[in-house]
Design a protein that fits this description.
Blueprint: H1 8-11, H2 14-22, E1 30-31, H3 34-37, E2 54-56, H4 61-74, E3 78-81, E4 98-101, E5 108-112, E6 117-121, H5 126-133, E7 138-139, H6 152-158, H7 165-168, E8 175-181, E9 187-191, H8 203-206, E10 215-222, E11 224-225, E12 230-237, H9 240-252, E13 259-264, H10 265-275, E14 284-291, H11 294-309, E15 315-318, H12 322-333, H13 335-342, E16 344-347, E17 350-351, H14 357-371, E18 375-380, E19 385-386, E20 388-392, H15 399-416, H16 435-438, H17 441-454, H18 468-476
Parallel strand pairs: 2-4, 3-4
Antiparallel strand pairs: 1-2, 5-6, 6-10, 7-11, 8-9, 8-10, 12-14, 12-15, 13-14, 13-18, 16-20, 17-19, 18-20
Helix pairs in contact: 9-14, 10-13, 14-15
Length: 477
């Protein structure tokens, strides 16, 4: 992945910059030692690494404002970082940039059960938001696979979803307001604790903006009452395409499960060896979960069973108790770790119309043979958010490049069938140069014009999202 050459004049400012930052922050919150900055040299897209100029760990909105004001005055680029779980290189630094990590911004600021909202600092992890309210019978719906570690700031930046987004939506559907710090240090409040807050409706611009417009330090989130009950069913099939067709038929029938997850044979085998969840020996399986009262659950699962029966499943396994339900989900929740034990892999993220699942899965299988690289599929099938895992050998010269080419071909296929480049991982650097595939020059100009308004100097997370040839004149202005 090509990145612009670092600015030597900015690098020369390191000592002066560090001194100014330490004047507004505790000394241990400014990290300058080269060995220690290596902790921030990459995110979840670990194939590419570059230590930052330095890293800062503010603990309040005011400290974030102070840091950005100083960096703005000195012309130093800033790369926001949540927990570093981004799989698109969204938090990868350059040698002339400051990493601004929000891990110390982890407090719960307000909880209002009557209005069903919680306000948190955005370094708080996704799962701990639910942890803060579950004793009162509430939960926070978006649940990325990395929810144990990923931060709310990154969820907002990438508009993250998760297994249950089919029913509850992704981050943008559960975000009501933010406190955001602009690159010049200005603090702005957008949205609030209720629908249709006064002022411009900018939440849709901020959510999914990948740290291009500002750094979100506080978020007001929607919390929901826990459902009365939930039950998953596991359905095995003898081909990927048949499993995809079953998903399409379930959606067309108007049934709304809380989740429909897909795994193919390579992923099933790896997950079974890793988690020993008791999965069947089949080519593909679906994990479908519904929720409600016992009567509602029985009704929905009966309809799903009727639809699945038309596709000749090799096995149908409905959870009868909490232990069986946990085992059905165990392998799926372990998928990325399980695959990482057997191979280097690159995890993609493209979204397609659900009706195109059979065709796209068949085409991925064909391309796997064409590129000579195995691929495992595990994804949120209910909303067509695919996560192909391309397996390669990082120590074999040329394999990474072949993996990148294969990944680009899959993402182009997603766009060709009416989908888009990303569902929840973001563009970052991974898909940056593919933006030309989905958007024409006028589209990209309109998007970059928005960044010009929020960040005229293009100091926030530069060289991400927009193709370098398209953004060059903006970055140089």
């Amino acid at each position: 992945m090509q990145m612009p050459q670092p600015n030597a004049s900015v690098i020369a400012l390191k000592d002066q910059l560090a001194a100014r930052l330490r004047s507004v922050m505790p000394a241990d919150a400014v990290i300058t030692d080269v060995a220690e900055t290596r902790a921030y040299e990459c995110d979840g897209l670990s194939a590419y690494r570059c230590p930052p100029l330095l890293a800062v760990l503010p603990a309040s909105t005011q400290e974030v404002s102070d840091v950005l004001r100083i960096c703005h005055d000195m012309g130093v680029p800033v790369v926001p970082r949540g927990s570093g779980t981004s799989l698109a290189g969204g938090a990868m630094p350059t040698a002339d940039s400051v990493i601004l990590g929000v891990a110390r911004l982890n407090a719960v600021l307000e909880t209002d059960y009557a209005d069903r909202i919680i306000r948190v600092q955005t370094g708080r992890t996704n799962l701990s938001v639910t942890g803060a309210v579950e004793a009162e019978g509430f939960f926070y719906a978006p649940d990325p696979s990395s929810q144990l570690a990923c931060a709310i700031s990154g969820n907002i930046a990438m508009n993250s979803g998760g297994a249950h987004c089919l029913k509850y939506g992704v981050t943008t559907n559960n975000l009501l307001g933010v406190t955001m710090v602009m690159m010049d240090g200005t603090v702005v409040e957008i949205g609030g604790g209720h629908l249709d807050a006064p002022g411009l409706d900018l939440l849709g611009v901020i959510c999914g903006s990948e740290g291009q417009l500002g750094i979100v330090t506080e978020a007001t989130l929607r919390i929901l009452r826990k459902p009365e009950g939930a039950r998953p069913v596991l359905i095995g099939f003898d081909s990927n395409a048949v499993a995809g067709a079953c998903v399409s038929d379930i959606i067309k029938a108007g049934v709304l499960p809380v989740a429909i997850e897909f795994m193919d044979r390579p992923c099933i085998v790896a997950c079974e060896a890793f988690a020993k969840a008791g999965y069947p020996d089949c080519e593909a399986l679906l994990i479908i979960e519904v929720e409600g009262s016992d009567v509602e659950i029985d009704h929905q699962l009966a309809l799903i069973g009727e639809i699945a029966a038309r596709h000749n499943p090799v096995e149908v396994r409905e959870a009868r108790d909490a232990d069986q339900a946990a085992r059905i989900w165990l392998g799926r929740k372990s998928a990325f770790g399980a695959m990482g034990q057997i191979n280097d892999y690159m995890c993609l993220d493209g979204t397609i119309p659900v009706t195109e699942l059979p065709h796209v899965l068949d085409r991925i299988r064909e391309m796997s043979a064409e590129y000579g690289l195995d691929v495992a599929n595990v994804f949120h099938a209910g909303d067509g958010n695919m996560h192909p895992l391309i397996l390669y050998n990082a120590n074999l010269p040329g394999d990474l490049e072949r993996c990148e080419a294969f990944g680009a071909a899959i993402l182009k296929l997603c766009v060709d069938v009416g989908g888009c480049l990303t569902g929840e991982h973001g563009v970052g650097i991974e898909k940056r140069d593919l933006m030309h595939v989905q958007f024409n020059a006028a589209d990209l100009d309109a998007q970059m014009a928005v960044k010009d308004v929020f960040d005229p100097g293009w100091l926030l997370n530069p060289a991400k999202v927009f193709p370098l040839d398209a953004s060059e004149s903006h970055r140089a202005a």
